[in-house]
Structure formats: structure tokens, C-alpha cells
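Q: Here's a chain of 125 amino acids. Please give me its 3D structure as C-alpha cells.
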Amino acid sequence: MEKVYQSVGAHGLQIPITLMRQYGLELGSGVVLELHPDGIHIIPARPEQSTIENRALRYLLSTVGDAATIRVEALPDDSGWQVEVYGEGVAQPAGILIYSPTGVLLPDRSTSPTEIRQGISKATD
């Protein structure tokens, strides 16, 4: 087991962001502090579905445009979130976005913005 030693300062304990990213946490990520007799356990908080919807829509607006709609569902065993991306008024998904259990987009498991744009344009032709 890896150990990292930190000092408690005037503002409490500060955990380096590089270490937090190793565990799927980014700036603004929520955590749960579990208080146990043997110490404090820090666990990533599972975001609400509405948080994933907002993140996916912001991502699509900045990479694909505003012609996309989404459907979000939790993956089995709390292993993350799947966001199906649709063209406006189209029944078949143009792609999917996969988010980690802590709400971080996993690009290597998701459809690329280029492929989503192509899927939307084919469906609306």
C-alpha cells in the first residue's frame, strides 16, 4: 500500500490534485468523509443524474453543437454513467459518452465528437 505524508495546516488537510486525479477526482468533485474509529476515509461522491446530464450537455454544446439530445442511465454495479446522444427528433443514438462513477468523462470509452457529429448529420439527412 502506498503512503503519502501530509501536514495539517491552518486551513486543514490539503491533498495534492495529482494524487486526487489518480482516484478519479477533479476540481469541484464531491467527496464523502466517513468517520471511523480508526480514522477518516475519503470516498468519491457519486454525482446525481442531473449533474451528469449538465456535464454531458455542456460537453456536447462545446464539441458538437446544440443539435443533440441525451438520455442518461447509471451503469450496472455503480460502475459509472452512460449517456446516449441523439440528433434532434432521431430515434437511433449517434454515439455514447461514458462517465466514471465520480462523473469524469472517459474519452477512450466514448464516441468521439467527430463521430457524433457524423452520426447526427447522417440521421437528419
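Q: Can you summarize the key feature?
A: The mean pLDDT is 89.
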